[in-house]
Amino acid sequence: MNNFEIDNSGLYPLYVGMDDTDSVSGMCTTYICSVILDRLKDCGFKVDGPPRLIRLNPFAPHKTRGNGAVSFKLVLKSKKEIEKAKKLILRMVQELAVMEDPKTNPGLVFYEGNMQGETKSELHDYALKTIRTIIKKEETEKLAERLGIEFFGFKKGRGIIGAMAAIGCPLDDATYELLAYRDPANYGKKRKVDPESVRVMNRQTYPDTFDNLDDGYMAITPHTPCPVLYGIRGETTGAVLEAQKMVKVSEPIERSQVFLTNQHTDQHLQVAENISQMEKLQCYIVKGMVNDFPVVIEGGHVIFTLNDGSGSVECAAYEPTKDFRNVVRQLAPGDRLLVYGGIGRKGTLNMEKIELITLAPVYEYVNPLCECGRRMKSAGAAKGYKCPRCGNKIRSDSKEKVEIERKLRTGFYEVPPSARRHLSKPLVRGI
Ligand code: ATP
Q: What angle do CA 325, 331, 335 make, to 5 degrees?
């Protein structure tokens, strides 16, 4: 590997990845990235393209919230400039990361040169593995050493796992998220974003932007004490920037940053050959048949079993999925489904969306009809039936099997924006 490879323009590319800088009680890796980028620009360093926000396996054990890592690319004039930029970034990560939180274990990686050929494809594979499975830090370190990627781990240094995935992730499909950050004086306080302006913005920009509203309510503001005031998700930089102009706020915005991201691309999903092949802490698209009528369990979660020839898996629509549960509740044994979702620690598949492929007939058993057209009533135990209108009697106790009309229709159904995983592709973006 040539570590000081020059690109066609005579500039030196430097890829920077970082992760695990924040804590549940505050801060955010995207914010630290934005602060660092602004400082780099102020110092005259050239940033190439938008920074990237890469969401990793939603079941990774040490995630704080949405398991996001970030990366960006600098194009620099000399080796000396590279060293200066690296020094600045290293210092700023150490200053800004929430080092005092025992669960924060920052990681920073630098890759110098053009990312191409074998290196590019190995990093692609590594990133997809980090998005779809669980990775050991040692595996990351070995690959980094082999590919000549410089890495810095602070404390336990776990962040290098995500940092390296962030520089390597392929983005064949991608979306954008504009993040507006608050004045630090307002952290933890109620966010002052005008809900009506968000509705107007949504009317004018949807579906170029999406997930702005949930059941008519504003969905762009987080509920954590983090630096983010709001996030607008969309198909292009232009769309999210236009949308921002329409959102009215009555508190200062310290800075904004548009990230290119794998959010809402379904990049976490693997097509499962069959149910028995699926593993915990991974996400799949799997085909199967509903085994039993769904049941509502304590907490309002709806559960049923999906099976195929190879095995079965418990599927859940949890309480936060709101109206999606009404769809799931109406499923019946024999319905054929394609389920999109992830398998948690306990082995339950948490559904993100479903395609209802075929509906099975559902029957109920009712008293027989009399010749006069009226439904008969039981004449008593083992005494057959009697018509309440004409008095006609029959001896048989057997009931009539009647097919029930299914209200559900075949097609796709998804969870609402508030329950959607960052990586999950909304139906409005296509299948
Ligand atoms: P935020 O979204 O607020 O930035 P987070 O949810 O991204 O926080 P982190 O604080 O970044 O959480 O912690 C996640 C940790 O898990 C990081 O150290 C990251 O390197 C690591 N990690 C991410 N994906 C995997 C994976 N697939 N296997 C093992 N570790 C992972």
A: 140
The boundaries of the domain holding residue 211 are: 175-261
Q: How many domains does the chain have?
A: 3
3-class DSSP string for 253-267: EEEEEEEEECCCCCC
Any ligand 1 atom below 6 A from CB of 66: yes
pTM: 0.94
**125 and 30 together in one domain:** yes
Q: Is residue 28 part of a domain?
A: yes
Q: Is the CB of 105 under 6 A from ligand 1?
A: yes
Q: Could you tell me if the CB of 162 is within 6 A of ligand 1?
A: yes
Supply the CATH number for residue 236's domain: 3.90.600.20
Whether residue 32 lies inside any domain: the answer is yes
CB neighbours of residue 122 within 10 Å: 14
| Location of structure tokens 């909304």 | 426
* Residue 189 belongs to some domain of the structure: yes
Q: Any alpha helices (H) in 251-379, and if so which ranges?
A: 324-329
**329 pLDDT exceeds 90?**
yes
Q: How confident is the model at residue 25 (pLDDT cuts 50, 70, 90)?
A: confident
**What are the pLDDT digits (tens) for 267-317?**
999 999 999 999 999 999 999 999 999 999 999 999 999 999 999 999 999
Same domain, 416 and 288: yes
Ligand 1 centroid distance, CA of 19 (Å): 7
| pLDDT for residue 2 is more than 50 | no
